[in-house]
Amino acid sequence: MLLRTRSGVEPLPSEITPRPLYESRRAVLRAAAAGVAFWSTGAAYAAPAVRAAADAAPAKLQARPSSYSTMERQTPYKDVTGYNNFYEFGTDKEDPARFSGSLHVRPWTVSVEGLVARPRQFGIDELLGLAPLEERIYRMRCVEGWSMVIPWIGYPFAELMKRVEPTAGAKYVEYVTLADPAQMSGLRSGVLAWPYVEGLRIDEAAHPLTLLTLGLYGEVLPRQNGAPVRMVVPWKYGFKSGKSLVRIRFTDRQPVTSWNRAAPQEYGFYSNVNPEVSHPRWSQATERRIGEDGFLQRKRPTLKFNGYGEQVASLYAGMDLHKAF
Ligand code: MTE
């Protein structure tokens, strides 16, 4: 249920569950999810009740569980929201949480253009209601060697694709982040050529694991995590998961992505998590799970495709992943 106020649409106070309670409830949900895939019948779920939040307050999002979720222990909320890469707000891990308060997340529009039959703009409320929201608990692996397990909320990017109808010539998707120096203090640094651009091959974008993401831990996305809408591509290094998206373009050419442009020998277009292919300056064979693995502890092995090989390996059949890294 919603309360409509002068400032926008807000959840009823009774709908906002204290996080500790919510987190314990999640264990029950996960157990249920492991037992039966009842949600796949599509019968029991209404559209998400809460579609929007006032700019100031994080609003709860209701989402159905997903069979794509991992059962691994979730990274604590304070680490998910306090240890971030979002260079538009600075390069220290604490900078995004400290400096992203200046980002205006409403109103917000995402322009979808290029090789599509129906190019158009989507407002953020429309994106929140475009398809049933799912909770996807994904392993995330950063190219720097750390990992997290994050309960994202969103729906497959393929849902958006259906609405705009890519043409036969569309082979890739490019997605672009906001770059407004008035709101993003980190843009003063020349660490990357702004705006932040990432991309996928169209079959990667259409893969059911690729999530257009609007929330985490039961709430709308915090700014430091890419509010109000971002990509999440769990079998690739984290930098492919572009934040705070404003433009999505379907194209016939492989997009020139920010990290590939900055250091092509170090960051390839594909950037699939692959312990067999080292970064030129460090091995990718192991990782440290934030919030769990101490600095003196032995690191845990990294899994090919971040453990999602069963779902995605076929996308790369016949490709040499040492060359197409
Ligand atoms: N998106 C933008 N616009 N700017 C960035 O600096 N960093 C990327 C990715 N998306 C980045 C970005 C990197 S390197 C990682 S590891 C993930 O965001 C981190 O996402 P998280 O902070 O929500 O965990």
Structure report:
With 325 residues, the chain is of the alpha+beta class. The protein has one domain: Oxidoreductase, molybdopterin-binding domain (Sulfite Oxidase, Chain A, domain 2, Alpha-Beta Complex), CATH 3.90.420. Helix content is 16%, strand content 23%. Ligand MTE binds next to loops. The site of ligand MTE has 16 residues, from loops.
Summarize the structure.
By secondary structure, this protein is of the alpha+beta class.
Q: Which properties best describe this structure?
A:
eight-stranded mixed beta sheet, alpha+beta, single chain, 16% helix, 325 residues, five-stranded mixed beta sheet, binds ligand MTE, Sulfite Oxidase, Chain A, domain 2, globular
List the helices and strands and how they pair.
Layout: E1 2-5, E2 8-11, H1 19-35, E3 64-65, H2 77-80, H3 95-99, E4 109-114, E5 120-123, H4 124-128, E6 134-141, E7 146-156, H5 157-164, E8 172-177, E9 197-201, H6 202-206, E10 211-216, E11 219-220, E12 230-232, E13 245-251, H7 258-262, E14 286-289, E15 300-301, H8 309-312
Parallel strand pairs: 3-6, 4-13, 7-14
Antiparallel strand pairs: 1-2, 4-5, 6-7, 7-10, 8-9, 8-13, 10-11, 10-12, 14-15
Ligand MTE is lined by residues 84-88, 142, 177, 196, 225-226, 238-239, 241-244.
Distance between the termini: 47 Å
Which sequence of SSEs, written as H and E, runs from N to C?
EEHEHHEEHEEHEEHEEEEHEEH
CATH superfamily: Oxidoreductase, molybdopterin-binding domain
Biggest sheet statistics = 8 strands, mixed
Query: Number of folding domains?
Result: 1
User: If classified by CATH, what would the architecture be?
Assistant: Alpha-Beta Complex
Which descriptor suits the 3D outline? globular
| C-alpha-based Rg, rounded | 19 Å
The CATH class turns out to be Alpha Beta
Helix percent reads: 10-25%
Q: Report the average pLDDT across residues.
A: 87
Describe the oligomeric state of these chains in a short phrase. Answer: single chain
Residue runs with pLDDT of under 50 for 5 or more positions: 1-25, 27-54
Bound molecules: ligand MTE
